[in-house]
Design brief:
This protein is an alpha/beta fold. Helices cover about 25% and strands about 20% of the residues.
Length: about 140
């Protein structure tokens, strides 16, 4: 816009980088994620609300939806796309794309490559000199 801030009409694509439904610590065992009863109830409500929201939003802007650590997808990278069955309303909107994690997209002439951040979280957790605030910048030079 005239004030230096972009207008909503300047947005050409929305990429949601994981943890779509909620961001809570998830327990794991050998067979995958373990959700508590409370987390399962919250996930069900959140999934319904997110489906409605994305179905409406995707009518105005294309959306790439990438899974994250707390989403119903496999927990090892690369993560497969979240199954469309979790989005009974949004599935019927052509401009929503269920993507893998990591995800590569061409937006105009700009090639984007992104993750939902598990790799940055792991580096932060297991190294002493890594800070998540500038860690993603450091990974470009490694």
């Amino acid at each position: 816009g005239d004030d230096g801030w972009p207008n909503a009409t300047d947005i050409v694509r929305l990429v949601i980088c994981g943890d779509t439904f909620f961001r809570e610590k998830i327990a794991y065992n050998i067979s995958g994620k373990i959700f508590s009863d409370a987390q399962q109830a919250n996930l069900s409500i959140s999934m319904h609300e997110t489906d409605s929201f994305l179905a409406q939003l995707a009518l105005t802007v294309p959306i790439d939806l990438m899974p994250g650590d707390s989403d119903p997808s496999n927990h090892m990278i690369p993560q497969q796309p979240i199954k469309s069955v979790f989005f009974p309303k949004a599935t019927f909107v052509d401009s929503i794309h269920f993507c893998s994690n990591p995800h590569e997209a061409l937006v105009g002439e700009c090639l984007l490559l992104g993750t939902s951040g598990q790799n940055i979280d792991n580096l932060d957790q297991y190294t002493n000199q890594f800070k998540a605030t500038n860690g993603s910048e450091s990974t470009k030079s490694w």
